[in-house]
Amino acid sequence: MGIIILCFMYYNIGAYGRHNREHLPDQAIFNCLQIAGILYVLTDTIGALVIGAKFQNAVTLNYFVNTLHFIISPLPSFFWFLYCDCKVYNGKGLQKRLKIYTIPIIINTIFVSLTPYTGWTFSIDSANMYHRGAYMWVTWFIAYGFILGSYLLLIVNTANKPRLQLKGFNIFYYLFQIPPVVMGAMQIVFYGTLLTSLGIVISVFIVYINIQNRRLTDIAIERLEHKLMQSQIATMLSQIQPHFLYNSLTAIKKLCTADPKAAEEAVVEFSNYLRGNMDSLTEKGLIPFERERAHIEAYLNLEKAVYGNKINVIYDIEASYFMIPSLTVQPIVENAVKHGICQRLGGGTITVSVKETKTEYLITVTDDGVGFDAANANLHIGIANVRSRLAAMCGGTLNIESKQGVGTTAAIRIPREGAYNK
Q1: Which pairing describes strands 348-356 and 311-317: parallel, antiparallel, or unpaired?
Q2: What is the pTM of this model?
Q3: How confident is the model at residue 66 (pLDDT cuts 50, 70, 90)?
Q4: Residue 162 burial (C-beta neighbours within 10 Å; 0-12, 13-18, 19+)
Q5: Which residue has the higher pLDDT, 168 or 155?
Q6: Does 57 or 88 have the greater pLDDT score?
Q7: In principle, which of 97, 324, 353, 362 could form an S-S bond with 316, CB 3.0–4.6 Å?
Q8: Pick the CATH number of 2-222 from 3.80.10, 1.10.286, 3.90.1690, 1.20.1070
């Protein structure tokens, strides 16, 4: 049963690695650990079955299987030691250290290979019965030495060390060694039991569970990144609408004759606006609020060039040194312009406010336009995308309150721990 379980895990993890090349360095070591575990359990099982057998060449087979078994015995702990080394040092310099790490394995291989002639590790009598040798402890000493070494590796202080702290799923680094150590000690005391093989199966299963968790995490992250990218593209495209570009360019054309200086400034704002939208496609993380504010100002200046005094803007910024997802406030401001004050005869005023509390940053966009049914806010440009990106990237929320004939207030709340203060 243990062999079947180990083979299943080996196949499953191998299939995962073939489609996830970035995990191959440490996964290659874990695959070797799995193979060593399979061979250990297999030789241990065959050795137990042939003891006392009377068929021809049974004694020879017994010697061969047990010799192979004791050569393999330190390998599971050896490969686990390498696995920990790879995690602690991120695989750097492993090739050089490997020359030193393999010395005990070479010594054990030579020592055990001579056992059929010396009886150092074990012996088989004429009745084909197995007996421990006087120096069997050498193999156990090497195996337990690598186990102890893995614990010493885990306390090494490196840049990658936070991944190995005793918390969460990373506790598996410390649990792996316990089953084979405890059950191996019991096997030494209770002669004739095969508990170590069971301990190895349990330990490999512990690592397998961790890798499966990593697999699910990777898949979830990939899906989230894809969703966020699609959201950013949709938001960006929703901003660059033909009528907005046409109106902006038409206003700039008129200014070229009426006020060349103002036309020059409008061209700069138009360029900044387009650049802000395009940059959002390459932004995978958060951006400083000041960049979002510059994008907002570029957009509003273009709209003022089109609508003139019909649009009034008030900025009440008390905090600006924090991070937000790109294109989160600007779509809200655009909604306030398009669906708020521009629908009102005589226009109106937009107020952009930023407040800071002990727990969060509060960004509000208020307009005194015509208002709308807040229950249908998702129908407006970019609102759904803004909500999803705020929640996914910084734990933020967006709440919209509106009253027809009075105006609309959109409030973005970003927790301080999600805003990554500069």
Answers
A1: parallel
A2: 0.53
A3: very high
A4: exposed
A5: 155
A6: 57
A7: 353
A8: 1.20.1070
